[in-house]
Amino acid sequence: MPDYDVIVVGGGPGGSTAAGLLSKRGWNVGLFDKESFPRDKPCGDAISGKSVRVLEELDIVEHVEENPHQVANGVIFSSPKGDEVQIDFPKKKAAEWRRERGASPYTNPGYVCRREVYDNIVFQAARKFGADAHEETPIEELVWDGDRVAGVKTANGDEYTADCVIGAGGSLCPVARGVGAYDRDPDHWVAAIRVYWDDIADLTDNIELHFLDSVIPGYFWIFPLDNGRANVGVGMLESKINEDGNERDLKALLEEAYEHPMFEGRFDNATKVEGSQRGWILPLGSKQRPIHGNGWVLVGDSAQLIDPFSGEGIGNAMMSASLATERLDKVLNNGGATRANLAPYEQAVRDEMWDELKTSHRLQKMGQHKWLLNFVISRAANSPHVAETISDMLADRDKKEELTNWWFYLKLLFK
Ligand SMILES: Cc1cc2nc3c(=O)[nH]c(=O)nc-3n(C[C@H](O)[C@H](O)[C@H](O)COP(=O)(O)OP(=O)(O)OC[C@H]3O[C@@H](n4cnc5c(N)ncnc54)[C@H](O)[C@@H]3O)c2cc1C
After folding, report:
1. Which of 17, 21, 36, 41 is the best mutation target for the ligand 1 pocket, counting ligand atoms within 8 Å of the beta carbon and taking the most?
2. Which residue from 172, 182, 168 is spatially nearest to 14, judged by alpha carbons?
3. Which pTM was predicted?
4. In a domain, 32, yes or no
5. Do residues 9 and 34 share a domain?
6. Which atom of ligand 1 is nearest to the CA of 192?
7. Measured between alpha carbons, how far is 257 from 269 in angstroms, rounded to an integer?
8. Which atom of ligand 1 is nearest to the CA of 302?
9. Cα separation of 1 and 115, whole Å?
10. Is the pLDDT of residue 93 over 80?
11. In total, how many domains does the chain have?
12. Most buried of the four, 160, 234, 336, 408, by CB within 10 Å?
């Protein structure tokens, strides 16, 4: 008899969602993380509506509401030229979407919540639903039974077996590496750093994305948190960081950004939170990798599902975890976690996310044209109608595709 029905490697939002939903359905789950919770994770801390939908499935939206957070109601974009536009998140539509599906009454379109807080909420929920949590237990290798993944081996040599192993160990997930799915292609990975600041002037309930000249083809962000704190950072494609042999220093770009005339006065009385500057890497969903096999599935960053335009990965981590648990729930007692039985999980991820990821990849490429950013942001800044159209497009998967159509920009010329 295996030790568990399912082993989950990694207790971030993806792994804890998977462990929580499976335990809630009565499966015997072992959840392993190399760290102990609560723990920090370098991130922008922006939690989108997609994550909120899975929080509802787990019944824990109120836990976010009860803990320190900032509700995010919109986004401010600025162009390399210095134009700025504020766009509301379509709160009303999101609320309607949720009500139609009988979800909880919370209508907030998104949050900014420190990962130290947020991840702990999801991790503790998984434990409460019954997952057997092993903290400070790094997984080093997979245990194989022929060509089937049959379990995991910890750093101190203990072995645990299961019918299925879920890889949710983030960018460097040992499961993705063990099954040979890991692929560090610099055209599809971003490096980013974040730092916390207290008392930046003029924070609002909008997240801020600034396409500064110095950081393009990346962006500089300021995301407001609770208590006057903000999450600030910069990210860029790895291939662009090292383009032409000229390595661009993200830390230097960040320092430069603070001095940009656009933020004049905003950092004057602000203080950096000591020790909070940390960098990490993001595998973008602009390249597909296999995410299932005999006895294993990958979710979240391990499955390479980060939005290539926004850098948002928490939503897809939780959503992919939810899809994986749906499939496992069907097959564990009905043919088992074989490659063939798990194939519909990979298909469900493609159906649910792939079109949007492809659209975002096209937007990421278009966003490298400064003139285009200048043009669109200036149009939106001068026309509430254009700003509203873009807001609708960002919220609606199908309409978002129109943003990648040059006709849309041509039409803007006449609006
Ligand atoms: C600087 C930066 C800013 C970002 N900003 C945003 C943002 O604002 N919004 C957004 O949605 N996304 C953002 N992202 C992306 C987001 O952080 C990830 O997509 C998200 O964390 C993926 O969740 P996950 O559960 O798949 O992996 P993770 O959150 O990385 O969790 C993986 C877990 O696995 C554990 N682990 C790793 N190796 C092992 C091992 N060998 N054994 C046991 N456990 C292990 C880790 O300790 C960790 O707890 C950002 C990323 C970066 C780097």
Report:
1. 41
2. 168
3. 0.93
4. yes
5. yes
6. 1
7. 16
8. 26
9. 36
10. no
11. 3
12. 234
